[in-house]
Amino acid sequence: MKIKVASIAIIILFASAFANGQNKLVQFQMSIMKKGPKWDTTKATDRDSILKQHVAHAISLLTSGKAVIAGPFGDDSEMAGIFILRANSATEAQAWVDEDPSVKAGLLTSEMHPWFSEDIYKKADTSALKFEKIYFGFLKRGPNRKEGDGNTPEIQELQKAHIANIVRLANSKKMVMAGPFGDDGDLRGIFVFRVASLKEAQDLAATDPMIKIDRLRIELHPWNVPVGVLR
Q1: Of 18, 104, 126, 207, which is most buried with the most CB atoms under 10 A?
Q2: What is the pLDDT of residue 14?
Q3: Cα separation values, 22 from 25, 27, 181, Å
Q4: Closest CA to 126 of 201, 226, 6
Q5: The predicted structure's pLDDT at residue 23
Q6: Which class would CATH give 5-226?
Q7: pTM tops 0.85
Q8: DSSP assignment string, the chain
Q9: For the chain (length 231 residues), average pLDDT per consecutive 10?
Q10: Could you state, in order of their start, the residue ranges of all structural domains in the chain?
């Protein structure tokens, strides 16, 4: 998928802000798992059986190192969860996800995006898998984002403030993941918080200068991920 100039500028800003020693942003593929066309029409017992196979497939991706982190959302939304994949291309990542029994059965569908992050992930211990609840936020294009305004001095200064706020939250250890999408769509990036409640995550997200002016909006979900993958 071609990365547009606007996305490259965001990536450079993230990279310069997060650069520490040899740390740098690398490209992953993020599969956003959504409820599929057969979710509501499949019998509950059949769905539960297929979802157990889905979990087994996710564990196999984690064990093999193809997935660096994966887990379900803990709310009743159309979005079911996230796979972050260490793949050479979106095509390769999509092939791995398409092998998921829940995708084959139409219970879930996959929406794939190139995504950039520091490579901070430890391999999951799948022999004794335990989960922690954190909060995953999609940063979305807001109504006050105008075409081409990223080149204006005002927005460039706000972008610097946006990055500075991310660094502040990361230094507080409450933000554990952040990074931009690379396909210049309505999804701009993600914030992930390790905090005690959804309200605390919302309050921290609200400190972002871009969210304050409604250039970005955030959609937060509780996210259950393997313990130990995120430092």
Answers
A1: 18
A2: 52
A3: 10, 16, 22
A4: 226
A5: 55
A6: alpha beta
A7: yes
A8: -PPPHHHHHHHHHHHHHH--TT--EEEEEEEEEEE-TTTTTS-HHHHHHHHHHHHHHHHHHHHHTSEEEEEEBSSSSSEEEEEEE--SSHHHHHHHHHTSHHHHTTSEEEEEEEEEEE--PPPP-GGG--EEEEEEEEEEE-TT--TTGGGSHHHHHHHHHHHHHHHHHHHTTSEEEEEEBSS-SSEEEEEEE--S-HHHHHHHHTT-HHHHTTSEEEEEEEEEEETTS--
A9: 39 45 79 98 98 97 97 96 97 98 98 96 90 98 88 91 96 96 95 98 98 97 96 78
A10: 5-226
- Reading the block at residue 76, the tokens are 């009743």
Q: How far is the C-alpha of 23 from the C-alpha of 231, rounded, in Å?
A: 15
